[in-house]
Amino acid sequence: YQRRVHGTNNLWEELMAGLAGNNDAEKLATLTAMNYKQQSIWFLNAYWDTFGQSEGEQLWNYCNRFTELDPRGAAGNELDELLAHRFLESFGMTLTVIRMREVLRELDIDFNKKMSMTEFLLYHYKERGATLTALVNSLPGGNREEIEHAQSLLSEAQHSLGIARNRRDDARRAENESTAAAAEAKRALDELHRQEQAYQDKVSELTKKSEDSALGVVTVGRIKNELAQLKAEDPLPLRRAKINQGPAVRKAERAALNATQAREQADKATQEAEASFNRAQDYLNEVRNRQGSAQGGMWWIQRELDEAKRYLPGRAGGVDATRTTRKA
Fold first, then answer.
1. pTM, two decimal places
2. pLDDT digits (tens, 9 = 90+) for 92-111
3. C-alpha torsion angle, residues 45, 48, 51, 55 (rounded to 10)
């Protein structure tokens, strides 16, 4: 049984069937070839009625850490010795990988100097009754169609969440652009007012001097000429301020409109995402406690749904930015 990495498209098809293999070792090879999520769900299903129910959140954390450490991410299925040791350190486990391998050899497992999620869980929960034979020969049970439909609704909710977050990001950018354009328009208007005031002050100054007979005929004549030229055409700074102010205002108006439209689209996308999450939650509430359902799998779908809900834009207590993962 050559190890392979499974994708997620056939997640429930594989998890709702028994493990392929003629003996425990071959079945284990099939299981450890699955990705971390699949291995976790299989283990959770197998021990749900004993200790799985109380350990679901811990398995979730273990799975996330395996995924964070593996360069292949969610597609991974096992860690090399170095990464396995870092995994153990993450949870304060002083047991060395070598010692863990020695313990697991007692289960007659053929090791390849790598630690899969299943191998870790078998060792970690050994004292609580986890055994190789029971694990690989367990059947998840449950209605595959119900679980696949629940997974489909979860995927739909996650997709709508992605759209809502993108729309919210678009709205933020549009809002920032609108704020910048409004500030630019205000600067242009302030400059126009400043130049207009400077123009009026200059006109007043020249008018007053042109009426002062004490300055002499020649000087007054020159001042009147300067005043006439000033009234005939705005000075360059004022002309420039008038030219710049119009486009700045129009740009600010367009940016404000774009921001309003972007906010409306974001709000609509968020409402659609919330509705999608509600549909998924309603269905889970309906089917997860039915007799024969794969409780571990249902718990995992619920946990993924709860995690995704945290990222709904504007959700009270939610996360409105990409979560910072734990440093390796």
1. 0.73
2. 886 666 776 665 555 446 56
3. 70
